[in-house]
Design goal:
With about 325 residues, the chain is of the alpha/beta class. Strand 6, helix 6 and strand 7 form a beta-alpha-beta unit. This is ABC transporter substrate-binding protein.
């Protein structure tokens, strides 16, 4: 009798194992796909990569497909035409869409960075930098209307420098070509993101003398946003996405620059580990990484001030017109 039962027990065990395996696969298939377009690939966005590397999105039941869309205009075009579901880009882009009278406005729902991410690099720097030194110089800036350029001009004006009159402002060079232009001899000063600023320091091509992030204050500088219609139709997915981002922000806040660098370096295969650590530490020290996803009203108003000063704002959109903090607030509960 035992000999007859044994084959059935073995077969039953195999069937149970097979069903269990199928169940796991089914679980993976049930992940909700979310297409995210980031405006550039940058260590400035470290919490985003932590969320992927630490499987925080998967823990929320999401399969995030991350694409670098290279530029604010291209990122917003991809979002508006349905090429991506969520964009990581500066909040000013949502305002530009709003000013054009969009029927389906773009809504900011989870902040990632809360300061400008650029630095002032001098070709020949003295012992102690003074902002007046920029007067009469050639300044290699960023694209007109973009957040880096607006934050840069806002800072210059705050130090009594008129960027249109007191220096020669160059801002017709493509974002990707700005470092090469400076390295080849264009400009006395340049406004750069990391890690290029630290690389130039390492190579002796320039020296970081000031931080535009520190100078321009807290802003909703880089935010996850989507069309209002997508958020309305995918509220649960938006909430899960925001939950993962908040967990990543907490992880970044609680870990060292070395630990963060090791987590995100797979996304930056050509970046030296020591440079990555220096960059991340610099951003942590100046508070660039937001501690939570909430876009508060004070930051929003600071952004509007910067845009107004740059002459890029037709009217001041109310905070609640383009910001939905309900997902961020729930993530904190």
């Amino acid at each position: 009798m035992k000999r007859r039962i044994l084959p059935f027990l073995i077969a039953a065990g195999l069937i149970i194992a097979l069903l269990a395996g199928c169940g796991n696969k089914s679980g993976e298939d049930q992940l909700v796909k979310v297409r995210v377009g980031e405006v550039t690939r940058s260590l400035f966005y470290a919490p985003e990569y932590v969320a992927v590397a630490k499987d925080l999105f998967k823990a929320e039941g999401l399969d995030v497909e991350l694409t670098t869309t290279f530029g604010g205009d291209k990122t917003m075009t991809a979002l508006l035409t349905g090429g991506i579901d969520i964009a990581l880009v500066g909040s000013e882009t949502s305002i530009y869409v709003y000013q054009q009278g969009a029927d389906d406005p773009v809504i900011n729902f989870a902040q990632l960075t809360q300061t400008d991410g650029t630095f002032l690099v001098a070709r020949d720097a003295g012992e102690e930098f003074q902002w007046e030194e920029l007067k009469g110089s050639v300044f290699l800036g960023q694209r007109k209307g973009g957040m880096p350029q607006m934050a840069g001009e806002f800072t210059l004006k705050g130090h009594g420098i008129d960027p249109q009159k007191d220096l020669e402002l160059i801002q017709n060079i493509e974002f990707a070509n700005i470092p090469a232009a400076f390295a080849s001899g264009t400009g006395d000063y340049v406004q750069l993101f990391e890690p290029q600023a630290s690389i130039f320091e390492q190579e002796g091509k320039g020296k970081v003398v000031a931080s535009f992030g520190v100078e321009s204050g807290h802003l909703p500088y880089t935010v996850f946003m989507s069309k209002g219609s997508y958020i309305a139709e995918n509220g649960e997915t938006t909430q899960k996405f925001t939950n993962a981002i908040y967990k990543a922000q907490q992880w970044v806040a609680e870990h060292s620059a070395e630990e963060i660098a090791d987590a995100v370096l797979p996304f930056f295969k050509d970046t030296d580990r020591d440079i990555a650590i220096k960059v991340i530490d610099r951003y942590k020290q100046q508070g660039s990484y937001a501690l939570n996803p909430i876009v508060d009203e004070e930051e929003w108003n600071n952004l509007l001030d910067v845009m107004t000063e740059a002459g890029e704002l037709a009217a001041r959109p109310a905070h609640d017109a383009l910001v939905n903090n309900s997902f961020a607030e729930h993530a904190l509960d």
